[in-house]
Amino acid sequence: MTRMTDKVALITGARQGIGRSCAIRLAEQGADIVAVDQPGPESDDALGSLANSVRELGRAAVVAAADIRDLDAVTGAVRAGVDELGPLDVVVANAGIFDAPGPSWEIEEQVWLRSIDVNVTGTWNTVKAAVAQLNPRGGSVIIMSSTATVKSHAGSSHYSAAKNAITGLAMTLANELGERSIRVNSVHPGSVATPMILNPTTFARLRPDVDDPSAADVAPVLAGRTLLPVPWVDPIDVSNAVLFLASDESRYVTGLQLVVDAGLAQKVA
Ligand SMILES: NC(=O)c1ccc[n+]([C@@H]2O[C@H](COP(=O)([O-])OP(=O)(O)OC[C@H]3O[C@@H](n4cnc5c(N)ncnc54)[C@H](O)[C@@H]3O)[C@@H](O)[C@H]2O)c1
């Protein structure tokens, strides 16, 4: 428990999936955690459970409900965390959505706008609120992008456009914040075993030939997209990459686009 000792890490989208895994992984290594997720009873329960898990690891946790589309709400959540735990050392701008895929010209306007609002503006809101609260000694900002920036799949233009936008945001921030010893990197997962892809809608899209398909039915399809013989990576594989970028082990790494995808982006179709 030494890689993050006494550092404070803000994580958005922390109630489940990759965000939760990041919160636990960083706490295991000594970080105190400010965990943010969207408002609602489901979040309250999940964030409460996350806080208990972090405290069982001997670290402090502040949880806050905020929709990242709402700058005032995100700013309030960040301030609440900093007031209790001190300035931020690490920001993991992780919250994001992928829903209602379809051909670019058929995607509903509100679906397009929601993807841009959450994935792009929400990430910018997070950064805007958090950079002002970063430790004057420096810090590490990690933007959760996707292999959708390097390998596009038909039907995901609203997501791909958003993830390309925040990758640009990350690289711009790296230029802007380097002189303040703030490193900025993006992480680009391929398929990850979280509710974002392990859900009935995605299963039906990937296996239209099967009635009521399951994860086992889609596994061969996704395994066909990777170099390594696995259909997806686990959240821990992404949070280990985040831990590296958050820790001083990567003290001179900035402007990196770190792909964690079992070879999905490199595979020739
Ligand atoms: N799962 C994958 O295959 C995969 C692949 C590449 C990138 N990613 C990215 O990783 C990140 C985490 O995804 P995940 O797989 O853990 O998905 P997930 O759906 O399990 O978790 C996403 C989290 O973000 C939160 N969130 C969504 N909208 C929000 C909002 N408006 N305000 C606050 N919180 C909000 C959700 O409540 C949820 O806790 C996302 O940015 C996603 O795009 C995921």
The helix content is: 40-55%
Number of strands: 7
- Name the bound molecules: nicotinamide-adenine-dinucleotide
- Averaged pLDDT, please? 97
Structural class: alpha/beta
Low-pLDDT runs of 5+ residues are none
Number of helices: 8
Name of the CATH class of the largest domain: Alpha Beta
Order of helices and strands: EHEHEHEHEHEHHHE
Profile the largest sheet.
Answer: 7 strands, parallel
Could you characterize the architecture of this molecule?
With 269 residues, this protein is of the alpha/beta class. It has two domains: 212 residues, 3-Layer(aba) Sandwich (Rossmann fold); 34 residues, no CATH class. Helix content is 43%, strand content 14%. The chain is built from eight helices and seven strands, in the order βαβαβαβαβαβαααβ. It has a seven-stranded parallel β-sheet, sandwiched between helices. Strand 2, helix 2 and strand 3 form a beta-alpha-beta unit. It is globular, with a radius of gyration of 18 Å. The mean pLDDT is 97. It binds nicotinamide-adenine-dinucleotide. The site of nicotinamide-adenine-dinucleotide has 28 residues, from helix 1 and helix 4.
